[in-house]
Amino acid sequence: MTNTIEIKGLRKSFGDKEVLKGIDFTVGKGEILAILGPNGAGKTTTVRILSTLLKPDGGEATINGFNVDKDSNQVRASIGLTGQYAAVDEYLTGEENLNLIGGLYRMKKSEAQVITDRLLEQVDLVESSKKPVKTYSGGMKRRIDLAMSLVANPPVIFLDEPTTGLDPRSRLAMWASIKKLAESGTTILLTTQYMDEADFLADNIIVIDKGVVIAKGTPSELKSQVGDDRLDIVLSTDDDFDKSLNVLSEDSVQTSKEDRTISVGAKDGVKKLKSVLNALESAGIEAETVSLRRPTLDDVFLTLTGHATEETEELDSDSKGGK
Predict the structure, then answer these.
(1) CA 311 vs CA 19, 39, 41, 154, 297: distances in Å
(2) Which of 44, 86, 266, 321 could disulfide-link 145, Cβ–Cβ 3.0 to 4.6 Å?
């Protein structure tokens, strides 16, 4: 497979804060690569460098064979970018926003309208196309924003946390639009904090934490690195919580005393469920709720880094050295 994006030793600092510490990855032509990581991990900085909005401090990044630093004009002609917040004119209609972008690309009005009509259908906004964008829901604004990045039909699209803040229905609609885009042959790099989003959309995943790539692979490979399914138990009382730690001390246990929750590794699924419940019953410990689940993003980071996802903000690169 031909690599559309190649990153080697990419580094970036803001003052004395090193945000990227020499990351490496590739994205094949027509592939969806998801970058997972908590806020502050370096995901957005990576996207800004690849989209020529920031200069790297070291390393090399190429898109379609063009260096993002030395060949920035050629790179910009090859990419589309949808940031974390919808960059739309809310006083224009959805159709007018798309035609506006076509005009900025110096397209003829007839050509821009053909593209606008196609994109409105692609992101399922035909019925709302004549309404001002300020009347759109958050999910609709994200979809029109995505469509605007596709007007020039770029071979590479960057999606920076495209579904953050959306309700479940809007997330599913956005996922469907992204899937259609990938099926057309577009190479997509998306950043996300959601394991289920990466699992649904991505061909491959890399995990970044504190500016370093700590894991990479397909969704299945990444899950296998994280570990087994987990059994979550909420105890009825604080006393039950303390007693249960002794009962389950031999297991891979994660705890939250504040929530009276114990999470146990469950390699054998239902068999593990039965054995844990029998052990708790024998000890006279009452469980309020019990659930068996697949690993979550927090489990990924707890396993790979020893800490859960953090809600720390990434440095504002626009005000510290951005173009």
Answers:
(1) 15, 6, 10, 33, 13
(2) 86
